[in-house]
Design a protein that fits this description.
255 residues, alpha/beta, 10 helices
Length: 255
């Protein structure tokens, strides 16, 4: 798939998704949201794709919501899927953010909605919505306090000031901090590493992590118990065990 605002490229078993509005620092308008939703649908529907990488064109991840478009009545949200068609979506496949330059406001929220984040050393992250009379309603005020200590999250949310990639790495917000210009390449390598694992198991990891969020352990274990029988009966589990016994790489079918 390719459009004026969002480009996709298949690289092995990974779908590289690029927000392509460099003239607007890859800000998200209605067209970008629709393009991202379409790209994510492609990732989910194609059994040959095992993971996705989300990035922005020309050295910038995303400046967030396109305020000019919003003033004209455009919505950067997709019903049921949230800001950019991503922040409330429940994807079964791993998605990695490759952040170069600025990930501000909704751009940071898109990254927070991903499973892993690779940040270039010159990247900046911030939630400046309060400076515009808004709040980080695309997941920022919900997700950030779960990812870092409460008082630090409140500092970023209440001041709206950005932080460096190095600080994001120290706080655990970024999985990797890499030289400028290499975020997408490293994210693709990480996606390839993830994709060597069983797709049904990866999907169930994501499902259980979501189910365990904010609930007592007993409830999370109960959900896990209901999901495990189907996984244990899958062809991939048998293949994983047999491959181990035969000392060879497993051949996953996703069944």
């Amino acid at each position: 798939m390719s459009s004026n605002e969002v480009r996709t490229e298949r690289i092995g078993s990974t779908l590289l998704i690029t927000i392509d509005r460099p003239q607007a620092r890859n800000a998200v308008n209605a067209a970008v949201a629709a393009g991202l939703a379409e790209a994510l649908d492609l990732l989910e529907a194609d059994p040959g794709l095992r993971a996705g990488v989300l990035t922005g064109a020309d050295g910038s991840f995303s400046a967030g919501m396109d305020l000019k478009a919003a003033l004209q009545g455009e919505s950067p949200e997709i019903p049921g899927r949230g800001f950019g068609g991503l922040t409330e979506a429940e994807l079964s496949k791993p998605l990695i953010a490759a952040v170069e330059g600025w990930a501000m406001g909704g751009g940071f929220e898109l990254a927070l909605a991903c499973d892993l984040i690779v940040a270039a050393e010159d990247a900046k992250f911030g939630l400046p919505e309060v400076k515009r009379g808004l709040i980080a309603a695309g997941g920022g005020v919900i997700r950030l306090p779960k990812r870092i200590p409460h008082h630090l999250a409140m500092e970023f949310l209440l001041t709206g000031e950005p932080i460096s990639a190095q600080r994001a790495g120290r706080l655990g917000l970024a999985n990797r901090v890499v030289p400028s210009g290499e975020a997408a390449a490293v994210a693709l390598q990480l996606a390839e590493q993830v994709a060597t694992n069983a797709p049904l198991a990866l999907a169930l990891v994501k499902k259980i992590v979501r189910a365990a969020d904010g609930v007592p352990d007993a409830q999370a274990f109960a959900t896990q118990r209901t999901e495990m029988p189907a996984l244990m009966k899958s062809a991939d589990v048998r293949e994983g065990m047999q491959a181990f016994a035969e000392r060879r790489a497993p051949q996953w079918t996703g069944e």
